[in-house]
């Protein structure tokens, strides 16, 4: 698979786009990480909890005896957000790339980091060549094939976007692929945490956005993955964390994921990513209009996803590339 656009480049303003505030205005915390993500390297342990999709999972609890860390403020949602993402665990729709399993725990920073049951976690990110669904004509920079050359059957308006609803431990799990990159950003995943709404017609409606942020990846791991196919077909100047316009160098409290290789000697087999999202359920921060990220194409789609958009039951798993 491959994906790249014609050279219709977009300008993305260099801005940190932090919305102000410090602690519980919807940030990220590492506190509770180990207890929230008690996992084994082989996934063969006896599971004690159930994911929202019915799977048992080794995630023990989103709470912790550790105190919450000081939290970062929300950041920009960027130019590639779309309403109406589907509630589903597997968001790949067959997009090729290195498999990535994300386990995120949502906790209430104002109440001793207790789990936020029923929180809706929404993520979206680009494919291996830097293309977002809904914006497949937006040039990712550098040199890459057109997105239409990827040869997959993904829906161009819905791939690599989705919601999951947190279980009793505040935990959600996504199956996706390692994102690619686009100029001038480092490798990242966008995330929003919603509360107060409900699942309706396959998506999540109502409530409010408590947190808008981005998840980041260690440079060494990202750069190793970008040497693999199909990522290697997108060439150009990759932006490292230290030079990124959004990442502020704060580690886990700034969205840096903890990553575990499925097979240490073969990165193409995939990674597991972990992070605790500590929010204030009374706060609201959509990340819209906060600067940074550039302007999407004028013909970008809006509204709900098409009726034929793939659901979990129809969505193929990510394929490992080597």
Summarize the entry for a quick read.
The protein is mainly β and 322 residues long. 3% of the residues lie in helices and 23% in strands.
Count of helical stretches: 2
Secondary-structure element string: HEEEEEEEEEHEE
Could you report the average pLDDT, rounded to the nearest whole number? Answer: 77
- Compute the CA-based radius of gyration: 18 Å
| Number of β-strand runs | 11
Helix content: under 10%
State the assembly state of the protein chains. Answer: single chain
- How many strands, what sense, and barrel or not for the largest sheet? 5 strands, mixed
First-to-last CA distance: 12 Å
How does the overall form come out from the CA principal axes?
globular
Q: How much beta, percentage-wise?
A: 15-25%
Low-confidence stretches: 1-67, 294-305, 313-322
Characterise the protein shown here:
The protein is mainly beta and 322 residues long. 3% of the residues lie in helices and 23% in strands. The protein is built from two helices and eleven strands. It has helices at 33-36, 219-225; strands at residues 49-50, 56-57, 99-108, 114-115, 120-124, 161-165, 171-177, 188-200, 203-216, 258-261, 271-279. Strands 3, 4, 7, 10 and 11 form a five-stranded mixed beta sheet that branches. A four-stranded antiparallel beta sheet has the order 6-5-8-9, with no helix packed on it. A hairpin with a 5-residue loop joins strand 3 and strand 4. The protein is globular and about 45 Å long. The two termini are 12 Å apart.
